[in-house]
Specification:
single chain; 716 residues; alpha/beta; 2-enoyl-CoA Hydratase, Chain A, domain 1; Rossmann fold; N-(1-d-carboxylethyl)-l-norvaline Dehydrogenase, domain 2; 3 domains; 20 strands
Amino acid sequence: MIYEGQAITVKPLEEGIAELQFNLQGESVNKFNRATLEELREAVDAIRGNDQIKGLIVTSGKEVFIVGADIGEFLANFTLPEDELITANLQINQIFSDFEDLPMPTVVAINGIALGGGFEMCLAADYRVMADTAKVGLPEVKLGIYPGFGGTVRLPRIVGADNAIEWICAGKEHKAEAALKTKAVDVVVPLDELKTAAITLAKRAAAGELDYQARRQPKLEKLKLNNIESMMVFETAKGYVASQAGPHYPAPVEAIKTIQKAATKGRDDALKIEAKGFVKMAKTPVAENLIGLFLKDQLLKKKAKHYEEIALSANKAAVLGAGIMGGGIAYQSSYKNVPILMKDINQDGIDLGLSEAAKLLVKRVDRKRMEPAAMAEVLNRIIPTLSYGDFNTVDVVVEAVVENIDVKKKVLAEVEGQIKPEAVLTTNTSTISINKLAEAVKRPEKFCGMHFFNPVHMMPLVEVIKGEQTSEETVATVVAYAKTIGKTPIVVNDCPGFLVNRILFPYFGAFSMLLRDGADFAQVDKVMERFGWPMGPAYLMDVVGLDTGLHAEGVMAEGFPDRMKREFKTALDVLYEAKRYGQKSNAGFYQYKQDKKGKPKKVLDETVYDMIKPVCQASQTFSEEDIIARMMVPLCLETVRCLEDGIVESPAEADMGLVYGIGFPPFRGGALKYIDDMGVAEFVALTEKFAELGPLYKPTAKLIDMAKSGARFFTE
């Protein structure tokens, strides 16, 4: 053994070839934490001092190669003073550079996922051999930063500036075929041939058949671009990437600027430029919040894994009620390899559900993300039926009929009699109490809510709603099924609107009051979209459907009359009475016309202002600051109440529910993180500014106490 640590070992193999293997003890994956980096430093020194080693291969003892840096550990480092952080970064980079400069050829064998720092380790090697099932990439921009272990320096010099910019700014994972095509890797082989291929390549290079020094040289020099080429590449890319990323996500454009600044430098000077820019990004609130969301997502995965340990199997599912929602659920389940029965009371419903699933699959085929044969397989796993004939074979049933308590109760009682006793029965209701619906079933312990968000294939969240009698095994089974079909489940307790809709409707209530007080709905939309929402409240209500929105508002008003019941007629009421239901009727707050791709495009309809005039005060201009405050305060306060009421277990789950369920601006971290960033005391002071608007703006006693004591929702 040449070197042995807890994460890295180096041992001789054959004919002067040695193997450096990553195998972090006590962890399911390899990652670059402080201990691993210290061991890599020691291992590189040991290899450099051993003249018996003529060639080196780098492998992984786990199913993945290296997933990247330990984000939790590095987030703590980001609080260091800027100069200290730059120095620390350059010290890490020196390890990678010393590995790159070893006096023998180096070949990395990528057996599985190699992302971020893991892929940057691969780039520092002379040759990269990749299993045909592996994936590589530099996803750092998704965390508000960009590669900081030499990725912005080495990748452009290996694959060219254009390809490197695309890889770094998009932050995507790349399959072996794409990596080989761009020359990010040199060889792709089946997994069982990977190590042999790496050894063979190392032997050939050690024997002089391959000139590894010539391979290494471009990574040490400036980019091979003349001034005109450089200007065309970088200036064009900056404009395009800025338009795609938007104003709230600076990392992709900063990455391009870094590559551009370093283009005329050799490796070591280029790494200094990268380190300085990396630290600049690491110090932004955007990075703090996006990394925070990543860690919150890890918490959700950890909780889901715990549930999976006690879950019953869910090998076959059923959905009641075809239509758009039922078809979306059927598609999602089938696409993720869980066969599903799709039942409706008439053939028209079945046809609509199948059409919805087929439409989604055709899009994948058209975009070359799926082969036609695979599409046929997915459709074959959706079994349409007008009867309960095969329902005794399913493990999970999702009821997705109309949002009417009497209809749902009837259907739930009916289907319960057709399924096996151990099967789990769920409802996709968005507002109706799970406890009230449980009155209709004989086995309430096997019943819970499973609330999908529309459109099902795009929205990652599923709320798993516990009733008073729901068993942990039932919750666990539904959580496991949601995870199997590619969704992020959050377990919540029962109340009107559950978590997400309960929080969303005070936001809509704030919007109604703004219009009542003379605000322009189009201006409010623009302000909230600039704030970071994917669509403003008027546009969102059109997409949801004004009829659906008013029905849900009624449920919320009944559940929380003190703050959600209104005493005035709103613009929503007027538009609903005029049968302007939103996108579904091609008219709501806006008119909708089809664009060239057949998608509804909103167009401002000036007649709406006259229609809603009787229920609105004289038009007045509100500052952007006041619009944001009036919209956000009720939403944030309701999130606080949900946490205090025990509807959701943790601040992290509350924030992730909003990001995944209604598109809360990710770069702001979630509603509770938004309060933390403002300062709890400052937020409470803001609520007082709007106290005359009523209970929606009244802070809880506990929040006032937090403000006085200087407490926060997130302490780490």
